[in-house]
Design goal:
Structural class: alpha+beta
Bound molecules: beta-D-glucopyranose
Oligomer: single chain
Largest sheet: 10 strands, mixed
Number of strands: 40
Length: 784
């Protein structure tokens, strides 16, 4: 629904005596805050014919809105998370068709992260109804001290904790006009944050999964396997005696005896309890919690459950799918699929690190590393726009920003530059991929302040803000072979360099000069500090640094920071580290993994990138999959214990962008895809790739296939776009035709076409320029 201006007259309300349980306020303690949900109601009558009625609502942490006995809208876990001390998002629903002469609004408000983050605060609600009558009269109904409130059947709720719903306490008709609310209390008015419209796509139940198997590892315990790790909850169907308590528990992995292994969820209780009221078949699903799981367990079920008693409800921010990728290599397809599940599992109104354990936070490193992949696959524009606002709101007066946005804890300041870079990098992506210049304008001053903060916290242009660096390389959480300062300084460079490009887009020429100059200085300092005769082989920074690794050499190659006369040598060093030291495997953490495949491809070694990615032995994506991963792990190792060991992290998902950019070969040349490159890399045993990307200019399609002596490429270029097509030269003697007409033979143009302009040969490619339309290029090997 389009956002309309209106004046908030409504007041934030809450309940006088909210029942809560204790918490020590630490964000990682065992006993998380849980409390009764609050139920609110308000009745009103309508006299006359209405032409239009709308409701504006926000309830923090989460609300569920009902009118005249029915649920309104299909958003769940709404509103989207923000820093509630500063801002809350509201939704607007058209309720014209729901109103009658006598009406009741009923709202349940749960804790969400609101309570988690601000432990002394309670759930609160704000509602404003705007009614327009056919005779032009207007009426407004607002939340205030005249609303009624009560506790109800939802007796406990917390995002990590789970939910307890005692159906015996249901108050039949509580959300209808005639309900007797004489025992309910009056709500009290409280203060609350500023409000802003929720424009980003909401969280929804997007899919319902059937379990693939059920078994009983122990008496009275039934385990359901959904065959897929995902985010959401289960819907239970049960019947039995009143008061029967059914307990649902969730886990990503199982122990060898088939029981659930709760180690990877750490201190999250992740338990939903439903107490039967004793009617025919009762159905229940939680509202104000979510879990990350593949397995769900039922305990206390009356009788023996079947596969039909439980359904998996897949829940995440409902971003539209915009990308499609498929190729002849099944492992690559599976990595793509795992990435999509990991990505979606971690879109919970903010980009989260993981969905299952006692964290689920907007960790910025994870988000920036997976952002390009997310953008190829989904329409992320509004999602990231909102999140950049969260980052902006979290900025302190010294310019610092946190590792996690919204920032729930002072210890998240200041960000490790590899995390903080999310601010500038994602803003740049929104411009680059969606042609959104306004986002750069809106954040320019804050980004500049952040860069100034980076500058102040550097010494001789070496950043001193690193904490995590190339996080989670093989065998460790902390980087072993990449000095944290190298990673931080690389991102310092990245941010200054991008800021200079942003200044250029915004025509701030003075700033272009200042930041290009600073970028040059950082580059020099980086090389001075980290470049040795033996490559970027550093000076150990800490006792656990044990020799140079791939990441140290990949990062400077990515930005062409390497002095020209050392470039070949550094590329060789990198190859040596990959092939000789690691037998064609990665030794990178999340940072190096984002850049290594691009760097290899740009330097002529796309084949090696492909080999690394398709390895089935440790460490690598193929290994994870062979070991049963259906999403992406946090660690390269298969770990079943506690600690840092999520089985659903998206931070290694950057590899998926490589599939689009290099296997399908699609990337913009100018912002917003008006002009783009089609440069497929024909590597390894790949026989075909088929991909599409729905851009702001329209749908781009590319499909290639090769046989022994023929290579075919079909592309579709949207109206108003141009493409640069880089065809691979696979044989010494060849002819190129387009749409059946031969245009090139052995590198010489033999025919001129208006729509297909031969630009020339570039290395092992022949390049053509095309305008919008559909093209089919064929390269045929000619006889020697
Ligand atoms: C999170 C990561 C995050 C990291 C910061 C972890 O606990 O799960 O994904 O980026 O902390 O080092």
């Amino acid at each position: 629904m389009p956002v309309e201006e209106f004046d908030w007259k409504a007041k934030w309300i809450t309940k006088k005596d909210p029942k809560t349980f204790e918490s020590n306020g630490d964000w990682m303690v065992k006993k998380f805050v849980q409390s009764y949900a609050m139920y609110f109601r308000k009745t009103f009558e309508i006299k006359g014919n209405i032409s239009k009625a709308k409701i504006h609502i926000s309830g923090i942490g989460y609300y569920e809105l009902r009118i005249n006995g029915a649920r309104v809208g299909d958003k769940v876990l709404d509103p989207a998370q923000t820093d509630y001390s500063k801002i809350a998002l509201y939704s607007t629903y058209d309720i014209t068709d729901l109103l009658r002469s006598q009406n009741a609004i009923g709202v349940i408000v749960g804790n969400g992260r609101h309570i988690k983050a601000y432990r002394y605060d309670f759930p609160k609600l704000i509602v404003q109804v705007e009614i327009e009558y056919k005779n032009g009269k207007k009426e407004t109904i607002i939340s205030d001290e005249n609303w009624k409130t009560s506790h109800g059947p939802l007796t406990e709720n917390g995002i990590y904790y789970g939910e307890k719903y005692d159906a015996r306490l249901e108050m039949k008709g509580w959300d209808e006009f005639d309900f007797d609310d004489s025992k309910w209390e009056m709500a009290i008015v409280t203060d609350g944050p500023k409000l802003s419209p929720e424009i980003m796509p909401p969280i929804r139940v997007v899919k319902t999964l059937k379990p693939v198997k059920m078994y009983s590892p122990k008496d009275g315990i039934y385990v359901y396997d959904f065959g897929q790790n995902f985010t959401g909850w289960v819907r239970l169907h049960a019947s039995g005696p009143k008061g029967t308590e059914i307990k649902l528990r969730y886990a990503e992995v199982v122990n060898s005896d088939g029981t659930l292994n709760f180690s990877t969820i750490r201190n999250a209780e992740a338990t939903d309890i439903y107490i039967l009221k004793g009617e025919d078949t009762e159905s229940y699903e939680p509202r104000f919690t979510y879990h990350g799981f593949r397995y769900a367990q039922i305990e206390g079920f009356p009788g023996v459950p079947t596969l039909e008693n439980i359904e998996g409800r897949v829940v995440h921010t409902d971003v539209e799918s915009t990308g499609d990728f498929y190729c002849s290599n099944e492992l690559i397809n599976q990595i793509h699929k795992n990435t999509l599940w990991a990505q979606l599992s971690n879109l919970m109104s903010v980009p989260t690190d993981c969905p299952q354990r006692d964290e689920r936070l907007g960790w910025m490193g994870d988000a920036q590393l997976s952002a390009e992949e997310a953008i190829y696959n989904f329409d992320m524009h509004e999602f990231y726009k909102k999140w950049l606002k969260d980052i902006q709101l979290s900025q302190r007066s010294d310019g610092s920003i946190p590792d996690v946005a919204p920032a729930y804890n002072a210890s998240f300041y200041p960000a490790d530059p590899a995390w903080g870079t999310a601010y500038i990098t994602i803003a740049w992506y929104l411009y680059w991929y969606y042609n959104d210049r306004s986002v750069l304008e809106e954040h320019y001053e804050s980004m500049k302040k952040y860069v100034e903060f980076l500058k102040v916290n550097s010494e001789n242009n070496i950043s001193k803000l690193g904490k995590y660096g190339d996080w989670c390389p093989p065998g460790s959480v902390f980087p072993k072979r990449t000095p944290v300062e190298l990673t931080s300084t690389f991102y310092y460079y990245n941010d200054v360099y991008l800021l200079s490009k942003i200044a250029d887009v915004l025509k701030k020429s003075d700033d272009v000069d200042v930041y290009s100059q600073l970028a040059e200085e950082i580059k020099l300092a980086f090389n001075k500090r980290f470049l040795t005769p033996n490559g970027y082989d550093v000076i150990r920074m800490s006792p656990i640094d044990s020799g140079t690794g791939q990441t140290s050499n990949v990062l400077p190659l990515f930005y062409d920071m390497v002095p020209q006369d050392r470039k070949t040598d550094i590329v060789q060093k990198l190859l040596n580290l990959i092939m000789n030291d690691q037998d064609c495997h990665l030794d990178t953490g999340i940072v190096g993994t984002k850049y290594i495949f691009d760097v290899l491809s740009e330097n002529g070694y796309a084949d090696i990138a492909y080999r690394i990615i398709t390895q089935e032995s440790y460490p690598g994506f193929g290994y994870m999959i062979k070991e049963g991963a259906t999403t992406l792990w946090e660690r390269w190792e298969k770990l079943m214990g506690g600690g840092m060991n999520s089985h659903n992290h998206v931070m290694f998902g950057s590899v998926d962008a490589w599939f689009y950019k290099y296997l399908a070969g699609l990337s913009p040349i100018v912002a917003g895809w008006k002009r783009f490159r089609v440069k497929p890399y024909v590597v390894g045993d790949l026989k075909y790739v088929s991909s599409s990307v729905r851009t702001v200019k329209g749908n781009i399609e590319v499909a290639w296939e090769r046989t022994n002596n023929v290579f075919k490429l079909k592309i579709s270029v949207p109206a108003g776009c141009e493409a640069e097509v880089h065809l691979p030269i696979l044989w010494e003697k060849y002819s190129v035709s387009e749409n059946g007409k031969e245009i090139l033979k052995d590198g010489k143009q033999i025919r001129k076409e208006k729509e297909v302009i031969f630009v020339g040969q570039e290395g092992d490619r022949v390049v053509f320029d095309v305008n919008s339309g559909n093209y089919e290029f064929t390269i045929v090997q000619n006889e020697e």
